[in-house]
């Protein structure tokens, strides 16, 4: 029988790659998107099928994670076998400006979804997009046993969602899992995250269209992987016989300076000539170092990342040059 999946946050980076993967696997895919005054579907336009096509396999619905009754109504009618909760206010810096909204969407949004599933008695598997930001100030390497010490309203909201997901698993026997994903990027990464901000600037600087790039803290260490490989890991978590939480990461560590180096040297430029400091991009409390240990995902799911940060930077610069 054809499997039915639901993706919240289908218009985001991960949602778009996951929709592609599930369609390739033969699923019927339903996606929740927000109503916005201008189009927000650029990442999934290539998958879009007209409503009147007879064999349509992608269905989009307006829904906001802050609107619980809408989630109940839609889940009741779609009755998916797998629910991937990827929607969130996902920007760490912005979460300091909008802590309350971040709590409502990134935190309580997951509870609304879990509670909707429980209320209608839906038998489905649930994936929660947990984050390495939950580890915050706890030193690396971080794995499933590492204590959380979130350093932003975003990280705090994700910890809440993480524990609610575990609680629904323990309290109601739900197949609910947390994927604790370290940073993963791609040419579809939002333009205000540091990797994409850098690779877009590199493309523009190489084309002579600009001469400066303003950034904040260049010393933080991140474990950057390639988004399409990470959504395959999400799917694998929901196919396993037992629900459990998994870290996905490359296990490698680079600073923002390293990412600048990889990106600028790919077009033969010296980053130090173009990068300027702007304190507006600093965070009130920073996460200094995230380096993941994904050995559980490797041994249980057979998940192993192939693209590491230097190659990732080149993929993203190439894509931004083509887009320009
Ligand atoms: P994006 O920011 O690219 O996508 C977020 C998605 O959530 C978008 O579709 C957005 O819609 C939607 N959204 C935001 N607020 C709401 C809301 N109130 N109701 C409904 N939808 C909403 O994030 P990513 O794709 O990078 O990440 C996917 C998930 O994984 C997020 O939950 C993120 O926090 C988490 N995560 C990401 C990591 C990463 O490195 N990328 C690492 C670990 C966790 P719109 O397009 O309209 O803005
Ligand atoms: P992060 O990603 O906070 O790790 O969250 P981001 O790319 O925003 O920041 C990474 C590091 O770069 C430093 N930095 C800057 N960041 C941004 N955005 N803009 C700048 O100009 C800049 N200059 C320096 C930051 O201080 C930080 O140390 C991402 C999101 O996708 C989350 O949703 C996800 O959960 C985590 O990754 C894992």
From TrEMBL:
- Which cofactors are reported in the record for this sequence? NADP(+)
Q: Which reaction does it catalyse?
A: GDP-alpha-D-mannose = GDP-4-dehydro-alpha-D-rhamnose + H2O
Give yes or no: UniProt keyword NADP: yes
Named from the GO MF annotations, one term is: GDP-mannose 4,6-dehydratase activity
Question: Which top-level enzyme class is recorded in the Swiss-Prot or TrEMBL entry?
Answer: lyase
Give one GO biological process term: 'de novo' GDP-L-fucose biosynthetic process
Reported EC number(s) for this entry are: 4.2.1.47
The record's keywords, sorted A to Z, are: Lyase, NADP
Ranges for domain NAD(P)-binding = 6-316
Its annotated function is as follows: Catalyzes the conversion of GDP-D-mannose to GDP-4-dehydro-6-deoxy-D-mannose.
User: Which family does the UniProt entry place this protein in?
Assistant: Belongs to the NAD(P)-dependent epimerase/dehydratase family. GDP-mannose 4,6-dehydratase subfamily.
Protein name (Swiss-Prot/TrEMBL)? GDP-mannose 4,6-dehydratase
Instruction: Please report the organism this UniProt entry assigns to the protein.
Output: Trebonia kvetii
Ranked from the top, the taxonomy reads: Bacteria, Bacillati, Actinomycetota, Actinomycetes, Streptosporangiales
